[in-house]
Amino acid sequence: MEFRTIMDYPQANFSMSHSDNFLLLGSCFAENIGSMMIDNKFHCELNPYGILYNPFSISRALREIISGKQYTEKDLFFYRECYHSYMHHGSFSAFTQDKCLTRVNEHLKRAHELCSTSMNYLIITFGTSWVYTLKETNEVVSNCHKLPAANFIRRLLTVNEIVADYTSLISKLLESRPSLKIVFTVSPIRHIKDGLHANQISKSTLLLAIDMLQKVFPNIVFYFPAYEILMDELRDYRFYADDMIHPSDMAIRYIWNTFAAFYFSKETTKIMQEYGDIHKALSHKPFRRDSEEYKRFLGQIVLKIKRLKEKYPYLDVEKEIELCHIQLNQ
Hints:
It is a single chain. By secondary structure, the chain is an alpha/beta fold. It is 48% helix and 13% strand. The chain contains ten helices and ten strands. It has a five-stranded parallel beta sheet, with helices on both faces. A three-stranded antiparallel beta sheet has the order 7-6-8, with no helix packed on it.
């Protein structure tokens, strides 16, 4: 007897590989998947604005990336002894304008170069349909940075607003990257502060908008059911973290494994396994780092890394080789 619902996933008509380049934008869940991709040696640019939750902020970020925008002092504001950008996560904030602008523009530059020259996949994770509009400028913000609620107007985006905005955005992206594949996900993280009913309405709005975009852009826009996997396939509080809102580490690994099975080719999976063995060996803590046995062990790892690089020249394993050499010379 089966005590859970196993989802029936439609077969993707493409395979992601380590030779591809990825840009990931969106909520905390984009961070989870993106971090695992980076750990497995994929070429990724992950959340160059920090975590973004709503579709309009993600759209604006992409438009700024495409245009090669450079932030200046006029794009920042000072509050509680720090300089902030309404478009950026608090991790970009700083005590000085120069430091804040340096953080912002370094990430923007890398994302622009990737987007304009070599991006194969864009992975977008929507978190919520609720947006906050700054009364002073009438612009949707990505982060309120704990300013008074009276400074903002809170409202729910409509399906048509999201579809219209992204129809224009995707058309713009395809002008320079006609072979681009776009994978949308909806974060399974529940926004309890909105209320459970309002959270469901919010998620439903996102799901309907993505479904319509798939119809507008067949064979370009795809949907990965991260939301449904946690809500329907796992469907148990043991798959949540202690806050009962975020997925647990076990749930994230389960969704990651499903993502890998869904999109990765056999060769990609094989590379991940081979690199995983090397990474595990590098994590080994010897009893004596200066022993001849450990140096021979490191030498064998270097040979494995070089063989892996010869088989897959596009794989970036230079840091691992450098780490081995440093430990060998200690």
